[in-house]
Amino acid sequence: MWWKESVFYQIYPLGFCGAERVNDFDETRHRLGEIEKEIGRLKELGIKAVLFNPFLQSDAHGYDTADFYSVDCRLGTNDEFAALTAKFHASGIKVVADGVFNHVGMQFPEFKALKEKRTSDKLDYFHAHFGGDGNLYYEGWEGHNELARLNLSNTSVRGFLFDAVRFWIDKFNIDGLRLDVAYMLPEDFIRELSGVVREKKADFFVVGEAIHGDYNRLLGCGADSVTNYECYKGIHSAINSKNLFEIEHSLSRQFADTAWALYKGRHLFGFVENHDVPRICTVLSDKQNTAAAYAILFAMPGIPCIYYGGEYGAQGGKGDADIHLRPPMKDIDRNANGDLYERIKNLVALRNARKSLQYGSYRKLTLANEFFSFMRECDGEKTVLGVNISDSEKTVDIGGEACDLANGEKASGSACIAPHSYRLFDVK
Fold it and tell me: Are 93 and 109 in contact (CB under 8 A)?
């Protein structure tokens, strides 16, 4: 399946294009060209799929949808977005969209009518009621009262949302959906939605957002993949604490060739940063280990995703708002981190070329606090990653006669890894 073999690139359109933080719903701006001009570079980088965070009409940040049938006027028009997706497809890049089905914004027409006109015919679209004082009481999303939760048990709401998704596929030709806060969506909703999209496209990709808990819950009701927050946390935490046992424990727990591994053979959605969490170059206490973090991401089981600007080592913390994580692409310094871009480009190329990195089993080889190695194997092809986050050279097991995939250097049984570095080997 295409998504199992793809490296993804995540774009938060409102931030990427430098849109206003609050929508005035007035003038249509035409900013999608900011994304279009990067298509050639992304193709050269080896990207096979792009994940768009919300691009539909919204009150402010995109997750407060106002209109499920219109592109946000701060970005452009429906026809312009359709043209953009067509250009991605022409470059061999699939397009996945963020599906925000749990809640809507205050300007969503049915909710706005409830608040302003006190009409009740759509009251059961939401988790809401009118109190004895005549006021509207409703459930927001996790304390965010600007986001009104939809009642996904209501068949009319489901029908509305499913029709909207069919429209996105027909109009924009999207190839997949990221299910926002999938951990809150009813399982039968996800199962029904998965059936709807696969009636339109048999190979349609569905990835659910889950931060904690058992990912098998979503994998068992129609999602193809789930966001791997466990390994996201494990990568930077293990590096910062100089305790690589942490990330290796997660990798074995999830993927080892044992009866008790939780997700063996499944393709979880991997990342070291995204639109909701601080940038890896901000999180890491020793920036020399940034490339090593990406090497783990690309070599471990799963689907690797680069968050825009990450290939250049962009920095950003949450601070007082997520806006710091979502800067205009034009403001990102593309020369700030030496050869990081070329290193990531090489990792993308290896991931695209090697079936062992796309489908292979996982086996630990060497493990110590500051260095480790593991093997991926598929149909006789073996790839070994050795990582060293220490200040001195270390030796790791590579499992046999091997060739360094970067420089062709031969090694036998073990290999030396330079400080704050990594090596990938083809093992015979």
Answer: no
CA dist 323 and 275 (Å) reads 9
Burial 345-365 (b: 16+ CB within 10 A, else e): ebbbebbeebebbbbbbbbeb
Name which of 93, 92, 15 is nearest 58 in CA terms: 15
Radius of gyration of the chain (CA): 22
- Paired residues of 205 in beta bridges: 176
Q: Which residues pair with 403 in a beta bridge?
A: 410, 426
CA distances from 359 to 163, 266, 295, 299, 382 (A): 34, 9, 17, 11, 11
User: What DSSP string runs through 204-264?
Assistant: -EEEE--SSS-THHHHTTT-SEEB-HHHHHHHHHHHHTT-THHHHHHHHHHHBSSTT-SST
Mean pLDDT, consecutive 10-residue segments, the chain of 428 residues? 97 98 96 98 98 98 98 98 98 98 97 86 94 91 94 98 98 98 97 98 98 95 98 98 98 96 97 97 97 98 98 91 93 91 98 98 98 98 98 97 96 97 97
Output the CA–CA distances (angstroms, integers) from residue 83 to 60, 171, 406, 415, in the order listed: 24, 10, 38, 49
Cα–Cα distance, 218 to 187 (Å, whole number): 7
Strand-strand pairing, 371-378 and 381-388? antiparallel
Handedness of CA 78, 304, 325, 224 (dihedral sign): positive
> Tokens at residue 206, please?
């569905």
Dist. CA 173–CA 191, nearest whole Å: 21
DSSP state of 17: T
DSSP for 272-334 reads: S--TTS--HHHH-SSGGGHHHHHHHHHHSSSEEEEETTGGGT-----TTSGGGGS--GGGS-T
Residue 56 half-sphere exposure, CB side, CA atoms within 13 Å?
A: 23
Q: How would you class 184 by CB atoms within 10 Å of its CB: exposed for 0-12, middle for 13-18, buried for 19 or more? A: middle
Bridge partners of 11, per DSSP, are 52
| Helices 155-172, 78-90: crossing angle, 10 deg rounding | 60
